[in-house]
Amino acid sequence: MQKKNISKNRKGMALVVALLMLLILTIIGINAITTTTFETSISGNERISTDAFYVAEAGIQVALARIQKDTKEGNPINMNPIPRTKIGEDSYYRTQIEDHGLYFMGGFGSNWQFKRFQINSIGESFSSAKEIEVQIRYGPIPADTGYNN
Predict the structure, then answer these.
(1) How far apart are CA 44 and CA 41, in angstroms?
(2) Would you call the peptide bond into 81 cis, given omega within 30 degrees of 0 as the criterion?
(3) 53 near 64, Cβ under 8 Å?
(4) pLDDT tens column, 15-51
(5) Is pLDDT at 145 greater than 70 in this prediction?
(6) Of 12, 31, 87, 100, which residue is 20 to 30 A from 70 by alpha carbon distance?
(7) Where are the domains of the chain?
(8) Sheet holding 82-86, edge to edge
């Protein structure tokens, strides 16, 4: 008879264990969903940031092409800022070229000089912005040519 009393006390135990297991699995599931949502958000922000960087790089390439074209044609280099230019769904760049003048460089002698430029480009993509600064050296140019553009 004692056996019957013990089994009577354990009748509701299966329900309690099942409910505890269900609670634990629910907590694990909620944690997994929260982590996945957070990681997806981070991934999206990284993609937008990378897009902004590449948009700024496009502005640098446009400025370099402008310098190269004007130099080949023998024209003064157009130093006007490149206005905000759309290149994607919500992606823009704007670029500024600065002339830092002529300078001589060791190893080339006083008969050669170089032209220095600084290009700043800001890329915007959705809610992110990236700025790139590039300094370039153009030359060598014969020093006696009077190159001053």
Answers:
(1) 5
(2) no
(3) no
(4) 899 999 999 999 999 999 999 999 998 998 899 999 9
(5) no
(6) 87
(7) 2-145
(8) 82-86, 91-103, 112-125, 128-142
